[in-house]
Amino acid sequence: MDRTLFSPAMLEAFKACKRAYQLAYSGAGVASRSASAAAICKRFIMRGLCLVNRGQVATPSQLQKFMGQHWPIDKLSDHPGGRDSATRAFLYAYKTLLNYSATPYRPAGSHIGAVALKVRSRVPNSRVYIEDVFDMVLWYPEEKKLEIVLFHLKPLRGQAVQWPSPSTLVRQHLAERLKVRWPFEKLVLTMIKVGPSEMKESSTTLEESLYRLHWPEIVKCLEEMQDLGEVPAHEGASCAFCRAIEEKMPGRESEARGMQAPISLSA
After folding, report:
1. How far apart are CA 7 and CA 129, in angstroms?
2. Residue 121 to residue 132: CA distance in whole angstroms
């Protein structure tokens, strides 16, 4: 398994379980995976949020037009749950986008620098590249502050400030590429949980000292991921991470489909 480009999601999967990471991101694993209904809905909502942040969807009528033209009904028709499940997913997406478009995230003093910005960087002294997409980048010229905004549908998890997650460290590394355009002195990472009736925010100031302390460990993980050999199956108890991937592999997908729950998003 030889790779040169990695994402925060891949790094988090590797840290959780090496075998699950290999199953999910090997050539056979990627080819055999089919997107779940929840994943399809999430991608649609993220696309809608992108348009809201760009000012292309600002009114209920514009949102209704967007939903009518682009709702992925064809991709959801084969998933379990039937018409009722698809209707609930549609209402969840519509109410979530309607709620956000009414009060989009615009802190005082901020200017939208970019929306859905893909950033890629090479890890110094290595053959490895990392890449991520920042849902929104806000620039505060008076404070010389840059804010990276990421949207989520699931509840936000707490994180100890002294122990930034691998994803956070990767995003801090990628943010250095943005200094040419926005010469920031302060970097903030904001996670926003959006939903049909609420919007919760969690912001963290990213410290350079913590980055320098923990980044070498991330580099070691990336190098191991690049040259990862065959990872044997777990002995004894089944691994939840591996099981979730294996159920979508060839020969197991039809069996898993029969036990799969309907779309879990609910309005």
Report:
1. 9
2. 9
DSSP alpha helix (H) spans, the chain: 8-16, 18-25, 27-32, 37-53, 60-70, 73-76, 82-102, 166-175, 208-226, 240-246, 253-259
**155 pairs with which residues across the strands?**
none
**Given its phi and psi angles, is residue 144 left (phi above 0), alpha (psi -120 to 50 degrees) or beta?**
left
Q: Burial of 238 by CB count in 10 Å (0-12 exposed, 13-18 middle, 19+ buried)?
A: exposed
Burial class (CB in 10 A: 0-12, 13-18, 19+), 169: buried
For the stretch 40-58, pLDDT in tens is: 899 999 999 999 999 999 9
Helix 82-102 with 60-70: angle, nearest 10 deg? 140
Q: Which residue shows structure tokens 């053959």?
A: 127
pLDDT digit string, tens, across residues 112-147: 999 999 999 999 888 899 999 999 999 999 999 999
Task: Quote the CA–CA distance of 134 and 146 in Å, as a whole number.
Answer: 12
- HSE-up (13 A, CA, CB side) for residue 181: 13
Per DSSP, 179 falls in state T
Gap between the Cα atoms of 148 and 191, Å rounded: 9
